[in-house]
Amino acid sequence: MKCRHFGACGSCTLYKLDYEKQLERKAERLRGLLAPFYDGEIERFASPDSHYRARAEFRIWHEGGRADYAMGNLSKDGNVIIEECPKVIRPVEERMEPLLEAVNASPVLSRKLFGVEFLAATTGECLITMLYHRPLDESWAREARALEEQLNASIIGRARKQKVVLSREFVTEELEIDSKKYKYRHYEGGFTQPNPYVNTRMIAWARERAAEAGGGDLLEAYCGLGNFTIPLAENFSKVLATEISKNSIKAAKENCALNGVENIEFVRLSSEEMTSALRKERQFNRLKGINIDEYDFKCVLVDPPRAGLDEATRELITTFENIIYISCNPETLARDLERLSQSHEVHAAASFDQFPHTEHLESGVFLQRRQINP
User: Fold this and answer.
1) Which Gene Ontology CC terms are recorded (predicted)?
2) Number of folded domains in the chain?
3) pTM score, two decimals?
């Protein structure tokens, strides 16, 4: 990828290395962190070099009577005006300049606009959220509706204690995994994997590990909108999937119906609450109608935030025969493996380059319970 803002914009920090060298640098880092627990092959899944990011957030910089996109600079002490961003997927790139032209042509759209967020899908759909430091009125809605038509996109306006949805608040992504297509509604403000191309490879890798788990039932923590849950469900009799976000659970249930999957129960529980429920320390109304005793859990999938697993969840998942751990922070993954490796052995590992041109790295490990020799 070539970008005229390399060295100025703080979004991409590995711009001096060609992409293959970036991948090797990240692979070496992961190999070092996993070395105490695993010395086998680490599968490496690369990203397209450019046009790979389906989510993007830009500040709006007003100067000299003009509005421009801006990002924090590399030295983290100011902003840099952005004239291009070749990492965003085409449906975002195609709308960036026309949107900015419309904003600069309209005092109504530009007044106190301080940010723009894009959420797109490989299907071509695009959702644009415009952020304001002022209340939004009917004159704004009228011009924004015309802009929706011009850009063939959905627009949301946000101001303090105000959200204006002009048409819809989601895009529908379609991913092909193992020759089967899955549809997902990605909502504005909800968490979605930013790189759909690498996300497809992550899900396929997790499906292979789930097949190795050998049936039974699946427990998933941090399930989000069902990104992994839905494609993995066919490997299990039943699935219990938990997530703390009410909006994510809503989206997950919609995505389940959208794909005609019927063996999943999505429940709004934090990882700590999930642990407490499975240990029967507490009863939760949110589990009403679900008999946990009916589940024969053979596998657990966790995809925690950067902080990794809490101590109680680490202890809980050691009771499962198979563990699929997807990590967005290899350092906390290595920390958690110090405990998990006492009872389980790592049988497979992979790196997923969701964020090219940065130090960020996603990874996955598959663990199975150690065999105790008689």
Assistant:
1) cytosol
2) 2
3) 0.95
